[in-house]
Design goal:
The protein has one domain. It contains three helices and two strands, in the order αβαβα. A two-stranded parallel sheet has the order 1-2.
Length: 94
């Protein structure tokens, strides 16, 4: 990562084997949970972010909204249903 000097190691990347949409499931990396997946994917992508309460109303949330994100409050069934529908629609679009 350019700002922090951290290194990113991608263990598996199946994009070369498929033309279908791919879901990447990174583990928690620490303070750079959002930046590292975007650096790894290097293609347009959407971030699914659980428990985004504070991001609904701050500048980080606005930046994510401009990129494309799916906020998911895992404690609310309606949020889980809406996020699932949005992810399904995105996958169908390719």
């Amino acid at each position: 990562m350019r700002l922090t000097g951290r290194r990113l190691h991608v263990l598996r990347d199946d994009r070369k084997k498929s033309n279908h949409p791919i879901i990447f499931c990174p583990t928690h990396i620490g303070s750079v949970d959002i930046e590292m997946p975007f650096l790894a994917v290097k293609d347009p992508c959407w971030l699914v972010l659980g428990n985004p309460r504070e991001l609904y109303k701050d500048v980080n949330g606005m930046m994510l909204q401009m990129n494309g994100w799916i906020p998911l409050d895992i404690l609310h069934k309606s949020d889980r249903t809406a996020a699932k529908a949005q992810k399904t629609a995105l996958l169908k679009k390719g």
